[in-house]
Every structure is written in C-alpha cells, then in structure tokens.
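Consider one such protein record:
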Amino acid sequence: MKAETRSGPAGLAEVRRFVDLEIAPHANTFERAERIPREVLSRVAELGLWAPFLPSEFGGAAMDMVTLGRVHEEVGRGCSSLRSLLTVHTMISASVHRWGDQAQQEKWLQALARGEKLGAFCLTEPDRSGSDATAEGTTAVRDQDGWILNGTKKWITGGQVADLFMVFASTGGGMSTFLVEADQPGVRVTPLPHVSGTTASMLAQIEFTDVRLEPSALLGPQGWAAGTVMTNALGLGRYSVACGAVGIIQAAIEACAAYTTARSAGGVQLRDLPHVRQMMSGMVTARDAGRLLCERAGALNDAGDPATIMATWVAKYHASRAAVQAAGDAVQIHGANGFSPDYPVARLYRDSKVTEVIEGSTQVQELTIAAEAYREVAQ
C-alpha cells in the first residue's frame, strides 16, 4: 500500500478534518460492509498516522504519547474500527522498535511507519480466556533451521489485511514472540464476520500449521515475552483503547447535540428538556475526566515513569465504562431512531461495549486497580 511522502504526520486540526469529512460520515457504511476500504487505509498512510511515534530514522516523527492519544481519540470519534487498526499497528510497531534487533528494525519499521505493511497482534487463543494470556496453546518448537510454529489465534484485529503477525507462542518453559509474514506457507486466514462491535476492523482467525520460521523471526528474548514484549504492547493497546473510548463519548455528545437541536416534543426542543440536559452534562463531564486521565497516562509514559502502567489501567477503566454509559444515553435520547442505521448512536453503543472487554476487561481492571489501592495503603 503506497502512500505519498510528507515531512511529518498530520496535526490534530488536519486529523479532525479528515475524520469529519472522510471517516465519520461513512462509518455506518464501513460497519455494514464489515471492512475499512483500502483507499481509507491509504489516506491514513498519507497523513502519517500509522506509527508517528517512531523516531525519524525509522520513518516516524517522534510524536509524544499525549499527542498520539489525541490522534487516536479523534479517529475513535469517527470510527472505532479504524481506531482498532491503529491500536494493533501501534502495538506491533512499538514492539519491533523496542525489542527488535537491527536487522528486524531495518526490515520492518520504515514499512510499518509508512503503512506499506500493516501489522496484527496475535495473542488470544480460540479455546482460552483472553485474560489468561500465558496459557499454553500455540507452540514454537526449535528445529535445525529455526522454529516450527503450530496453533490458532482468534479475534485478530486487522487479521484479514495484515502483512505481519506478531505471534505469541509457548517455546517450552516460557512464552516467546515471533514475527510471522502473512504470506508464509502454512498460514491460513479466516475472516470472522457478523461481530457486534468494531465490525469493520476485519477480524480474523489465524491458523499456523507447521510454519517454518527463520531464527531471525524471534522478537526479543526467548521465554520472556509474558513479562516484557506482551506487557509493553498491551499497555500501549490499553492506552489507545482508553483514548478511543473518549472519542466515542465525544461522538455521542455531537450526535445528541445535533439530534436534540433539530427535533421537538410538545412544542419544546428536545435540547431544552431537563433529562436531556442531565444526560448531556454527564457525557461532557465523563469526556473531560477521561481525556485528563489519558493525558496523565501519556505524560507519565513520555517521562519514562513506571506509574504510567497503573495510570493507563485507571484511564481505560474509566473511559470504557463512561463510553458505554454515554452511548447508552445517546440511544435513549434518540428514542426509536437510536436503533436505526440512519443514525450513528447504535454503532457507538456496540463499539463502546467492545472497549470494556479488550485489552483487559472491566472486571480484570477492577482486580488490578483495587490491588494497587490496598498496596498503597499498606505502605
């Protein structure tokens, strides 16, 4: 997927225009088609948004995490499916940059930054809880020429269009990470249609049958992926999802403001009804709180402060729950029209629920956040 060269990524104002003109008006169409058109993915590349956080020598612009979060918020405002593609691509690009050797970086980072190669994150097993990420399933066994990979991964965002899979596999005594090209023999991609939520993110099941990998396919240290590559990648994914959830809240505010201004009940504009005002006030407050939590997590990440880990958990916990509440209120405000494909709010509700499940479910986050609270008090 070729893109025109530009000196740097689009600024927030340009991203906002892109979302307003080319994404948000068509997001329901994307959902019905269950895919993001190639030309839209190419436009993301033209705007320099696939991996702008990478250093300039690898085709990025060294964008800080706070700004990256605002970019993902804007894209999430327009289409959560497209934001999901950015999320997983971010996880893979950042992982290759942090854990890859020189050869891996030279082979992949420029192409990932330009959007010429798209990445997919392969962790979840079809018969295991996504939260039980270290459970043995997919395996990679050493042979004289490298590795033999076998197993199946499911619910893989962007799996239908990805060129590079970052695959987590048991290597005996631990989990390791491998870079697997989608066109290698033994790789089978099966689309997963009719999913409720982020329906256009082109989910797939990926089967690996006796896939032969060169030694250079191993990313990072063997057997340490659960505590290194996975932890770092999931943290970035969690941050992107949190920012995208804030975007969903903003989209709900915009949809409800337009709808309640245009319609009346009993001679009174819907916007002037007290219960509508109450719900709108809740949305605005939740959006502002979520945005501030995301900015804090991003700033801590930029500063290299390990407190970013818990700050990201908190941001994602608040933003995802608030997005579900805001989208539900938006459907309520729209009444029967809230269930119609002619309005965006039903899609927002479906997409919002996904944010409570992926990159750490609400219930897992509650265990983690509460445990940290007890640890702080005990000090």
Observations:
- The chain has eleven helices and ten strands.
- The chain has a mean pLDDT of 94.
- Residues 12-118 form a domain with the Butyryl-Coa Dehydrogenase, subunit A; domain 1 fold (CATH 1.10.540.10).
